Amino acid sequence: MNQLNHDSPPSIRAFLQSRDLAPRKRWGQNFLINRGAREKILSLLELEKDQNVWEIGPGLGAMSGALLDAGVRLTLFEIDPAYCSWLAESLVSGRLTIIEGNVLRTWPAQWSEAAPQRILGNLPYNMASSVIASFIESDRVAPLSVFTVQDEMGRRMKAVPETKDYSSFSVLCQTSAYLQDGGRLSPGSFYPAPRVHSRIMLLRAGTPCGEILNPQEFRLIVRSLFASRRKTLGNNLNAAVRLKGFPGKEKVAEAFAAEKIDLSRRPETVSPEEWVALANRVAQSG
């Protein structure tokens, strides 16, 4: 068997070839070969012995071995059956669980069994927002998550109002967790090298903008009124009232008036704090 060096593209390439494998673009298989970046992520996780830790997309296990060495109970979510076989072969531990399949389908059952204290993942660019949103929209945000995402995604997560990156996803993230920028990674930190930079993002569970009285209704209001960024809040509201579960138009309009948010504004001008205040007023109106 070829000795695998997680820092070396030639070693990774030779290892994959020995097993008749290759990185798959559709699954976002870009391995983090930057040892310094991996060590930084481990430090950012603030690990303690016996914590329940989830790793999404472990790939060939560059981070996984170090996590087990830290004494945690580790659950790996990996979609590639061949990588699952390698992880089971190379990481023999009574503190390890490997879950094969699409994490969006498999994580809820695992949460019910044992909620994680930490989550990390080098998330595929084509599904990073879906993974993060799935935790937030299920009201299942771990105490601390450390995700590596596309640089553009990181900017969207922490964007401020009246900027091109600010969106309903920005509001979702900023009202459900305390965000911290963990730093930018160059394409050369990965093999194969992607065409864009990446960013490490930390999410600490909390309510930075205050408690949300009805989270499900809050998310529906925000998504619906962000539906057309170029339209005013009033025009988006006119369209949103046809959506199932959306509060009455008059109730929402009254909440906007009470919060002194003019319906002639566009959604990207409304701050996360204003969205929370608006939705809470709607919730309180019964």
Strand content: 15-25%
CATH superfamily label of the largest domain: Vaccinia Virus protein VP39
Q: Structural class, judged by helices and strands?
A: alpha/beta
Order of helices and strands: HEHEHEHEHEHEHHEEEHHHH
Count, helices = 12
CATH top level assignment of the largest domain: Alpha Beta
| Low-pLDDT stretches | none
What does this structure look like?
The chain contains twelve helices and nine strands. It is α/β, with parallel strands linked by helices. It folds into two domains: 24-205, Rossmann fold; 215-284, Helicase, Ruva Protein, domain 3 (Orthogonal Bundle), CATH 1.10.8.100. The strands form two sheets. The chain has a seven-stranded mixed beta sheet, with helices on both faces. Helix 6 (128-137) links the parallel strand 5 (118-122) and strand 6. Helix 6 packs across helix 8 (168-176), helix 8 crosses helix 12 and helix 9 packs across helix 12 (272-284). The longest helix has 13 residues, at 272-284. It is elongated.
